[in-house]
Amino acid sequence: MRRSQFGRRTAVRAVCAAIAGTMLWAGSMQVFAAQKFDPAFYAATYADVVSVLGTDANALYNHYLTYGQKEGRMPCAGASGGAEVDGIADTSVTVTAQQTASEGIVPMDQLANYKSIKKKMTNEEFQAAYDAALEIVQPLVGLSAEDQLTEIQKTLRARFDNGMAYSTSTDHYNDPYGYLILGAASCAGSARTTGLCLNMLGYSYEHVNENQWTHQWCRVNLDGTYWICDPYGLYTGPEPSAYGHPYL
Question: Are 75 and 49 in contact (CB under 8 A)?
């Protein structure tokens, strides 16, 4: 009888030990499982990366896998440097005013033509348009003024040529939200989107023919010479005469 009880006790202890070992192993797996990459954390922590790649989540994720992990960068809050990751966390990247100012970008609330650019956008819509424009202008920091204007015009024109629709009736047809987020805009929307990019790089501008039913563009004073920056009008360069346009 004693042997039988001893055997049963031994068996129970063995089963408990096995269960405990399984739970410990499972717990260890949870602790050391790969975490999700947090693009918002990565952007907020590594301004040097954002200044080159912008805030696109996939671009930041690829940077971490290619370079950041080897450099010992942290993929998310609380992670160790160079930690393994498994996919991208569902977080939005918000670039702060302090970050943008430190990278040569004017914060949204300090834009020279703020009221004209905002038009009827909500604050949330304006922020979305600003974030989209940030990806356009960040790579241009440090270039000459002429090159910056040329690249803005080329990039925005390419966006139109790659599937945008010209419209004077859809929602936000005359502001950057329509151009950069909804993908439909008039020349007024093109001019305000161009102006947003210019303001972000520190240029004030004049919106030629603003709020009129005729072609519109941005007029920029570059050291006493007025330049046109006009994605829809397919021209960037010195104006031929005061308020003149070479293609009109």
Answer: no
